[in-house]
Specification:
- This protein has 220 residues and is α+β, with helices and mostly antiparallel strands.
- It is built from five helices and nine strands.
- It is rod-shaped, with a radius of gyration of 65 Å.
- The chain starts with a helix and ends with a helix.
- The relative contact order is 0.10.
- About 8% of the residues have low confidence.
Amino acid sequence: MRILGVASASAALTLGLAGNALACNISEFSAVAKCDGTKGVISVTDKDPSGVKATITVFLESNGADEKQVGEPQVVEGTREGVTVDFSEDWKPNATYRVHVKAGNQVDEDIKPNLVTPAEACKASDESTPPATPSPSEEPSKPSEPKPSEPEQSSEPSESESTPAAETGDNTPSPAGDSNLAETGSSSNTGAIAGIAAALVAAGAGVMFALRRRGAANNR
């Protein structure tokens, strides 16, 4: 009986130690403030090998009291290697945050000590890389003025090309009775000739009239 009692006590002690080894503990949680590019982040890591679900809540502290809650509570299941959850927060330098852990019936307390942010805030993108000053040789050159475009050549012929020039005739007068008669059927001197003929007819008539009067006078 004494041997059986000793064996039972040893088994109970072993089981108790194993249970304590697998229990979730606040020491398995840690928090840090860091920068994700230009944004502030508060990261909480759970290294609980038992994988008990834990709810993490972060508060900004002011004069020993909660000033505001950062985001919404997040649930994490830890591993031996550690699982991290991030809270986006534009934290200020030397600010204090309280990180509370609630894991079933095993843990319901804050990570100690409270989290204090670094003395330098996250830098903006324009401050991280100052713009390089171009050297005189690298100064951008002025854009050259565009050349005026030449007028488009029209495929249609111009008026001087499409309309042939009128032929000009020879202004030199042609001999009388030659080309003028052939072209118009009468000479340009027809009027003068007709006047001379009329004068000759009138003169002949006057001569005949005078001769008749003289003959009549002689017969008397």
